[in-house]
Amino acid sequence: MDQRLIQAAIVVIGVPGVLIGYxxxxxxxxxxxxxxxxxxxxxxxxxxxxxxxxVVFLVYPxxxxxxxxxxxxxxxxFVGLANYEYFFSNSDTLVSLRNTVLWVVLMTLGxxxxxxVIAILVDRVRYESIAKSVxxxxxxxxxxxxxxxxxxxYQFRAPGSTQTGTLNxxxxxxxxxxxxxxxxxxxxxxxxIIVGIWMWTGFAMVILSAGLKGISTxxxxxxxxxxxxELQVFRGIIFPLLLPTIFVVGTTIVITALKSxxxxxxxxxxxxxxxxxxxxxxxxxxxxxxxxRASAVAIVLLxxxxxxxxxxxxxxxxxxxxx
Amino acid sequence: MTALPRAAGDARRPIxxxxxxxxxxxxxxxxxxxxxxxxxxxSFRPAADVSASGWWTALAPPWDxxxxxxxxxxxxxxxxxxxxxxxxxxIPATVISVMxxxxxxxxxxxxxxxxxxxxxxxxxxxxVVPLQSTLxxxxxxxxxxxxxxxxxxxxxxHTGYGLPFAVYLLRNYMGGLPKEVFESAAIxxxxxxxAFFRLALPMSVPVLASLAIFQFLFIWxxxxxxxxYIGATQSQNLxxxxxxxxxxxxxxxxxxxxxxxxxxxxxxxLVVFLALQRYFVRGITGGAVKG
Lengths: 323, 291
Known about the structure:
The structure holds two protein chains of two kinds.
Chain A: H1 2-30, H2 35-68, H3 82-89, H4 91-122, H5 128-136, H6 143-153, H7 166-173, H8 187-213, H9 217-225, H10 230-258, H11 262-267, H12 277-287, H13 291-322
Chain B: H1 15-43, H2 47-52, H3 68-75, H4 79-110, H5 116-126, H6 135-144, H7 151-175, H8 179-187, H9 192-203, H10 205-220, H11 224-229, H12 240-250, H13 256-275, H14 277-290
Helix pairs in contact in B: 1-13, 3-13, 4-7, 4-10, 4-12, 5-7, 7-10, 7-14, 10-14, 12-13
């Protein structure tokens, strides 16, 4: 305990010190050169630490994983496409692929749709900031905590006994249930995805709400004075103007959904046909100990993300052109 | 977040439509609050009650609340230790990534060098690279250097994984600072280092705060990085998320302890979030609207 405290204190005080020292020392050394040379070398010194981290933890490992995905269990001999063939023929991984598609589609629709509805509703009331905070809070907690919260919501007891789970108690009130929400495939996937929606809707709401504030009040009022009803205002003005923002939010949620792992790890450990590809990778890595197959799963995940990466870069370029 | 209602047509609209709006919003707010409230109430109930009846029965007298669940998980399930581990992992990792990112972001924003745009486009691309595609090589690297399982391993890993977002957010903000400030500083003979420490950093305090909060919550809430790089071998170093996630399977029938465990992991993020919501929201909108 004491040793850890010292270690952490050294890092918290030492790292900024070292980094500042690095910049100052580099500046001293640069003083030996003429001004033009200085300006040419300095930027490389400043970006070097970040580039080093990015290369060591992201760039090099990703390329290494690509190579591993063509190798055998221990990463020693090349096996061609065998690991990918396994991925697309094994029933377990195919179920996980299906579930990931479910996560992406349902979570994105749910988060963006609810986020939009709530952003529009809270815009019209005086308790807007409180309402927003309530929706937004789940984003601050971990997926692990959210999973436990919802484990209790979904709790199931055998028919006839007292239902202690909130949802089954509500179902009981209207004479239905009880449902084994988490154990019954394939709908258990939907109930896990609801945890993701519950957490991320606040994210969509905050961003869409900021976009909504950017739409001119005069424009909306002019449409209303001309006799447009609220639905027409939404379809004709709000939705088209918010579409670029909706797209940005949607992209973020798609990527989050593709990478979903924590909820499955905590709530079902991948049982009851709830595995997703990110969890499948973990399973191949630790339970099966098959580096090749685990890498192939990771690369499948990476490949599905590449279109979004390309889109991000294109959009970034467009923005830079405007700047 | 302003509290002013903007739909100016409100006064003309029939009262039942306003009522519908309030009811809809209150129902949504209830749906968002009840799951957390349920956990919170259950975490203070005696074990026997939790398994015998729903959390709502505890709201009516006789009130019978206890701290036993918290005492149990803190003392017997190692949650107290894990809480400290989480702090030891999160704070240094946040400090390292914010510092490294600030220096690089300034260079990307205000210095001229070949391949600057290409390099920054690579950073933008790295924003979405899934952790999964790096796990095996990084774990091997950490193992071969002998630091796998240590705090250092997760500090470095979190810094690496957090940097694309950090550099991106800071560079966008620093790039938006007024050009004249840096130009006149240069005319006055200030070199870029002085401009960075005296001008750019102080002017970027709001975005640095957003980033620090964002990184703090991100690292505190992380499961995967610690699960893989600390793992079972050095389980005394594991943060709360991993310990609590593993409790789900190991506790079996004693699920009432989970309520207290989950609430302990949420406590600090909730405090940070409620106290600094403004910065948190700004970090998110700044990263995503522009991103």
